[in-house]
Design a protein that fits this description.
By secondary structure, the chain is of the alpha+beta class. Helix content is 46%, strand content 13%.
C-alpha cells in the first residue's frame, strides 16, 4: 500500500535534523583538539585567582570611579576574548580576577594597562647583553652618533657632523600592508630597509653615545639621578610604588642627553619595569623592546592610543600575525608618516617598544596601519582586544595569585545532576501515565534536544572559549525541560480538536497549527528574558542566561524538526490511533457523547 499523501514531508524534516546532528558531531570529533568534552568553569575545574593592586603615580588610593572603569574595561576584554566564565570584582582598593584553569597568565594579560603611544625613535637602538643591560664593549650600533652631538637644528662643528646611516638598522623589515602604504615592523630582530637619513636632521639622529667610545674632551659629570633603591620597610606599598615611579621618571625621562646615556646603561631589560604604563607621554623615554633585546631612546608622544578607532588581528601577506589599526584622526597619521619618512617610529605598549617600523611611504592616507612583531594568534588577538576596548585608567601589579579548588563545585554538580536526572525521569513517567505511548515521543524529543545541546556546548568551548559552570548547567536543564512543555501544549491542542469530534489523524495537523503559535509566543518571551538577563547580569548569571537562551532556540528547532514530524507520522499509523496506545480514549468518549447529545437535540426539535 503506498504511503498516504504528505508522509514524505515529516521524514524529510527528521532527515534534516539527523544531518544537523551529523555535522555537529563531525565538527566535534574531526576538528580542533577532537575532544568530546566541554570546557568546565571555575567551580567545576578550579581556576586561578589573581589580586591586582593599583599603582598610582602620587602613591595615593585610587578613586572608586577609576576602579569601576578598570573593572568594566577588563570585563569588556573578557567578553572580547569569548564567554570564558571569568569574574572581575572590586575588593576594597584592589581588583580580583578569577579565570578557569591553572594558568594565571590569562588573568595577568587581562590586567595589562595597554597604554599605547606612537613615539618617533631617536637614532638607533642599542643591543642588550645576556645580563639584560646595554653591552659596554664593541662597536656602536649602526648610525649611532658620538658624544657631543649638537642639539636640534644646530649645525655640527667640522668633522663632528653625522654621516648618513649605513643603510641597515635593528628591526624587522617594514613593508606597506596595503595600498595606503601602511608601515609595519618589529623592534626585536631582522633588518629594516631604507634607513638612510639626511645629515640635516640632527634632532632625529641625536642618540645614546656608544658605551665603548670615550669623548674626545672631558665632559661634565651628569647630575646625580635618582635610582630605585632597596625597599624601605617604613613605606606603605603605595608610597614605595610612588618612589619607584618617580625615580624611574627622573632617570629615564630626562631631557639631558648625558642622563639619557646613564639611563640606558642602568636599565635592566630583564627586570619588571616600575614605569610600565606610567611614563609621561610629553617627555622623552629610554625603554626596552618587548623582547628585552634592545634599548631605545624615544621622542615625546605624537599619537595617543586613545585615538585608535578599531583594532583587529589578522595574518599579513608574509603569513605573520599582525594587529591592524584604524585611527580616528587620519590626518595625524598622515602628518607623522610624512615627517618621518625613511625613519623609525615606535609603537610603545605600557612603556615598552612592541614594534619600531621604518616608514617606507609617506604621507600614508586613510588612517590605517599594521603592527607586526613576534605575535601568534593568541597574543595578536589579546593585543587587538586591549587596544580596541581602551587602556586602563590605572596601572596594576600582581600582589597575590592563588588556586581556586573545584571540590565544592564538583559536589554541587553531582547533587545537581542527580536532582536533574530525578526530575527528568519524573517528567517521563508523568508523560507515560498521562499520554501512554505518546509519552515516548516526548522522551525522544528530550533526548534529541540534549544530544544537540551537548555537541554545541563542546564546539562553543572550542571556538569562543565558553566554559560550563553550575549556573550554566541549571540553564541547560531548564531549557531542555521546556521541550517537554512544548510537547504538552501540542498534545493538549490535539485533545481540544478531538473533543470537537475530529479523528486523531485530522486532529494532529489542526492541533499543530494552534500549538505552534502558542509555543512560539512562549519561546519569544523566554528568549527576550535571556537576552536582557545576559546584558544586565554579571559573572555566573551570564552563563545561566546564555545557556537558557541557547536551549530556547534549540527547543524551537526540535519542535519543528522532531516533535511535529513524529506526531504527524504517528497520526497516520493505525497503531498510534488506538485509544489504548495514545491515551485519548476518554477524549473520544466525550466527543461521542457530545455528538449523541447534539443528535438528540436535533431530533427533539423536529
Amino acid at each position: 500500500m503506498p504511503p498516504s499523501k504528505g508522509t514524505g514531508h515529516p521524514l524529510r524534516l527528521l532527515g534534516v535534523y539527523a544531518v544537523l546532528l551529523a555535522v555537529i558531531y563531525a565538527l566535534v570529533f574531526f576538528t580542533g583538539d577532537k575532544s568530546p568534552e566541554p570546557k568546565l568553569g571555575i567551580d567545576l575545574q578550579g581556576g586561578t585567582q589573581v589580586t591586582l593592586t593599583p599603582r598610582t603615580p602620587d602613591g595615593g588610593k585610587p578613586s572608586k570611579d577609576s576602579l569601576k572603569q578598570a573593572q568594566q574595561i577588563i570585563e569588556s576584554r573578557v567578553n572580547g576574548l569569548g564567554v570564558a566564565g571569568s569574574e572581575v570584582v572590586i575588593d576594597g582598593n584592589n581588583l580580583v580576577i578569577t579565570v578557569p584553569g591553572s594558568d594565571g597568565q590569562q588573568a595577568k594579560s587581562l590586567a595589562t594597562t595597554a597604554k599605547l603611544y606612537i613615539r618617533p625613535v631617536v637614532g638607533q637602538p642599542l643591543p642588550v647583553g645576556p645580563d639584560g643591560k646595554v653591552q659596554t664593549g664593541g662597536e656602536p650600533a649602526p648610525g649611532a652618533e658620538q658624544p657631543g652631538t649638537p642639539p636640534a637644528n644646530t649645525p655640527a662643528p667640522g668633522a663632528g657632523q653625522q654621516a648618513p646611516a649605513s643603510g641597515a638598522s635593528p628591526g624587522t623589515e617594514s613593508k606597506p600592508s596595503n595600498d595606503s602604504g601602511t608601515a609595519s615592523g618589529t623592534a626585536s630582530s631582522g633588518e629594516t630597509s631604507g634607513t638612510g637619513e639626511s645629515s640635516g636632521t640632527t634632532a632625529q639622529n641625536r642618540v645614546f653615545p656608544a658605551p665603548a667610545q670615550a669623548p674626545t674632551t672631558p665632559a661634565p659629570a651628569p647630575a646625580p639621578s635618582p635610582e630605585p633603591g632597596a625597599p624601605n620597610p617604613a613605606l606603605t606599598p603605595q608610597q614605595q610604588a610612588k618612589q619607584e615611579i618617580d625615580a624611574a621618571r627622573a632617570l629615564r625621562q630626562s631631557t639631558d642627553p648625558q642622563v639619557q646615556q646613564l639611563a640606558a646603561q642602568r636599565l635592566d631589560c630583564h627586570k619588571p619595569d616600575p614605569l610600565a604604563g606610567n611614563d609621561d607621554p610629553k617627555l622623552p623615554l629610554v625603554t626596552c623592546s618587548s623582547d628585552g633585546n634592545e634599548v631605545y631612546l624615544l621622542a615625546p608622544m605624537r599619537i595617543d592610543g586613545q585615538d585608535i578607532k578599531d583594532a583587529s588581528s589578522s595574518l599579513n601577506q608574509q603569513s605573520q600575525w599582525a594587529v591592524d589599526l584604524t585611527f580616528k584622526n587620519a590626518d595625524a597619521w598622515a602628518d607623522l608618516t610624512k615627517e618621518y619618512l625613511q625613519k623609525q617610529v615606535a609603537f610603545t605598549l605600557d612603556s615598552k617598544v612592541i614594534s619600531a617600523p621604518v616608514v617606507q611611504q609617506g604621507p600614508q592616507l586613510g588612517g590605517t596601519t599594521q603592527i607586526t612583531g613576534q605575535f601568534n594568534a593568541s597574543t595578536a588577538k589579546e593585543l587587538a582586544n586591549s587596544l580596541k576596548y581602551g587602556s586602563l585608567p590605572l596601572s596594576f601589579e600582581v600582589s597575590e595569585a592563588s588556586t581556586v579548588s573545584a571540590t565544592l563545585g564538583l559536589a554541587s554538580l553531582h547533587a545537581g545532576l542527580i536532582a536533574g536526572a530525578i526530575g527528568l525521569v519524573a517528567v517521563l513517567l508523568y508523560c507515560l501515565l498521562y499520554y501512554r505511548m505518546l509519552g515516548f515521543l516526548a522522551g525522544f524529543s528530550l533526548v534529541a534536544s540534549g544530544v544537540a545541546v551537548y555537541g554545541i556546548i563542546v564546539l562553543l568551548g572550542r571556538w569562543i572559549n565558553f566554559t560550563l559552570d553550575l549556573a550554566g548547567i541549571a540553564g541547560l536543564i531548564i531549557g531542555i525541560g521546556m521541550t517537554a512543555d512544548s510537547f504538552v501544549v501540542f498534545f493538549e491542542r490535539i485533545k481540544d480538536e478531538m473533543r470537537e469530534g475530529r479523528s486523531f489523524r485530522s486532529a494532529v495537523p489542526r492541533g499543530w497549527a494552534r500549538a505552534q503559535r502558542t509555543n512560539l509566543s512562549g519561546k519569544t518571551v523566554s528568549l527576550i528574558a535571556s537576552v536582557v538577563l545576559y546584558i544586565l547580569a554579571a559573572g555566573q548569571v551570564k552563563g545561566f542566561a546564555f545557556t537558557l537562551g541557547l536551549t530556547t532556540v534549540l527547543d524551537v528547532v526540535v519542535l519543528y524538526l522532531v516533535t511535529s514530524p513524529l506526531m504527524m507520522l504517528a497520526s497516520r499509523s493505525p497503531f498510534w490511533a488506538k485509544p489504548s496506545v495514545n491515551g485519548l480514549g476518554a477524549v473520544q468518549q466525550i466527543a461521542r457523547e457530545r455528538k449523541a447529545a447534539g443528535t438528540l437535540v436535533g431530533t427533539g426539535s423536529r
